[in-house]
Specification:
With 255 residues, the chain is of the alpha/beta class. Helices cover 49% and strands 17% of the residues. The relative contact order is 0.15. One of its GO terms (molecular function) is hydro-lyase activity.
Amino acid sequence: MSIDVTRVGSVATVTLNRPEALNAFDQAALSDLLRSVRKLGADQTVRAIILTGAGDRAFAAGADIKAMAKFNPQAARAFGALGQAVTRAIETVPQPVIAAVNGYAFGGGCEIALACDLRLAADTAVFAQPEVSLGIPPGWGATQRLPRLVGGGVAAELILTGRRVDATEALRIGLVNAVHRPDALLPAAGELAAQIAGNSRSAVAAAKQAMAVAFGVDVPGGLLTELDAFASAFGTEDQREGMAAFLEKRRPVWP
């Protein structure tokens, strides 16, 4: 995947560019995204960041399951830690980050959107945390961020069932801030980013930092618990069966 970064004034747009694979992530793509986010975070001329996916089908369809199916717990832990580094970078850069979700946001793709400060969705967008259907728990932050965003009960339903949520429901439950036609999504994100960029850079950064502690819960500690659970799932019968079933396009038969 190439990570394309463009600028219009003080607003940077980061595009996940692997549309033929629904912008799914492998280790190289995650590393490239991490570098891009950190570089933009250190650039004081950037006042807002938009994150979106190339093509009209997907924001990001999550991690590459074909690669993940071969992981042992150590490899899974390293991959999960890299995914968490990306989401924490998005969460902690001084600039607000707006996710412009233009299609599927599944698994890690949804988790990356959850790490953003604001989420706008095309009316074609679909969200899901389907990890349990693969025999693993989420690994890039969904267990920590989704409950804070939509509430514990709704988050538990979505994570424990893995069901898909369309844009209308995502708006109703507070998963996204607004829904737009696909052709209006990026202009709307650009308008929102421009509004933010027109304010004091230092005040916006301070407000973002203050809101991050509003929940009074140790997010890094929660992420470590999630990472332990994610890595430990690899090598289990459920993980092998869940990912094999996905790759073979059949329903899993759980032990």
